[in-house]
Amino acid sequence: MSARPLVAGIGNIFLGDDGFGVEVARRLAGQEQLAGVHVEDFGIRGVHLAYELLNGYDPVIMVDAAPRGGDPGTVYVIEAAPESEDGEEHQGHDALLDAHDLRPEGVLSLVRAMGGSLGRVYVVACEPSCVEERMGLSEEVAGAVDVAVRTVCDLATSKGQS
């Protein structure tokens, strides 16, 4: 597995706060402190992300909006659970059925279904305020972008994370 980190912005810019991951990836692109880190806006191209993950990155940091019940704008760091033996292949096939709505767990399942393996995987998520047809982030989520940028930088440049 490569020691090169991947930062993947995920989301749909046409659904308000769902564009959070895309905006974070845009801000991170070209930052000097992330030299050697592959930063890409995958948007709604989950299948493309799954194929990219077959190249072996460690760590993988996905950035996405994720409702978890907190206040809008709350940033969470979620470490992906180790692979489970139950149903991984089935979940990966389900992910192919709706390729434009691949959540991070669907992408990871698809990678495993294609025979790939994963190292450390984190999701830097933000509690959305408004996920409906509109352009632009809500005030709360826009205010969380800088927090997410710092969090991703810390995760991508830290050595010896477990």
Automatic annotation (TrEMBL):
<keyword id="KW-0645">Protease</keyword>
<dbReference type="GO" id="GO:0008233">
    <property type="term" value="F:peptidase activity"/>
</dbReference>
<dbReference type="GO" id="GO:0006508">
    <property type="term" value="P:proteolysis"/>
</dbReference>
<keyword id="KW-0064">Aspartyl protease</keyword>
<protein>
    <submittedName>
        <fullName>Hydrogenase maturation protease</fullName>
    </submittedName>
</protein>
<dbReference type="InterPro" id="IPR023430">
    <property type="entry name" value="Pept_HybD-like_dom_sf"/>
</dbReference>
<dbReference type="InterPro" id="IPR000671">
    <property type="entry name" value="Peptidase_A31"/>
</dbReference>
<keyword id="KW-0378">Hydrolase</keyword>
<comment type="similarity">
    <text>Belongs to the peptidase A31 family.</text>
</comment>
<dbReference type="Pfam" id="PF01750">
    <property type="entry name" value="HycI"/>
</dbReference>
